[in-house]
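Following up on my earlier message about coenzyme A. Here are the inputs again, as you asked, copied directly from the submission form:
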Amino acid sequence: MRSAGSSEISSPEGGAGSGLRLRPLEYADLPVVVAIERRAFSAPWSLSMFVLEIAKPGGIYLAALRTGGAASPLCGYLVCARYLDVWHLMNVAVDPKLRRRGVGGALLERMFEVAGDGEQRFTLEVRASNRGAIEMYQRRGFVAVGVRRRYYQDNGEDAVVMWRGEPDG
Ligand SMILES: CC(C)(COP(=O)(O)OP(=O)(O)OC[C@H]1O[C@@H](n2cnc3c(N)ncnc32)[C@H](O)[C@@H]1OP(=O)(O)O)[C@@H](O)C(=O)NCCC(=O)NCCS
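Thanks, got it. Here's what our run produced:
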């Protein structure tokens, strides 16, 4: 697993004494990750999918934790794999109770930092109906470059393909 370091961000959630800490995702986090995943997606990843993914060397795997004594501190996560010279954002989700408080954006910013930003290129697929996520990606420099028709097997939905940096031909 690529070292992502840790960082504290002051009070992105707006609560008195609360804040956010970002650190590398650990195997011990996965039960909570899977619980959030099941509430976040209609076709969630299984525990074994997470285990296999974060075992791959060279990826960026991040956990977002609330600070300030929260009973269940893990509130979001991000999984990003590297294939050749392109970073593929595979998964990002935030606890439904804690959305729109900057956690998803903070995870993306940390991913850019760990990757080295600058010349790095990133790509992802997102459900065409997922306007909130598309908005978040656009605000972080991703551009929609195409559509994969009927990409999602559970409901036949199209995927919007987004890139940050020069897309592959
Ligand atoms: C997408 C997701 C990760 C965003 O996490 P988050 O912590 O709520 O994101 P942030 O608070 O950092 O939002 C950043 C910006 O994204 C946009 N955004 C996020 N959710 C939005 C929504 N539901 N509607 C419209 N815009 C939204 C906004 O521009 C927002 O900025 P603002 O709050 O200042 O207006 C979260 O909604 C989630 O877990 N969704 C389910 C899983 C998912 O769809 N993952 C992406 C798969 S490709």
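One observation from looking it over: The radius of gyration is 15 Å. Hope that helps, and feel free to reply on this thread.
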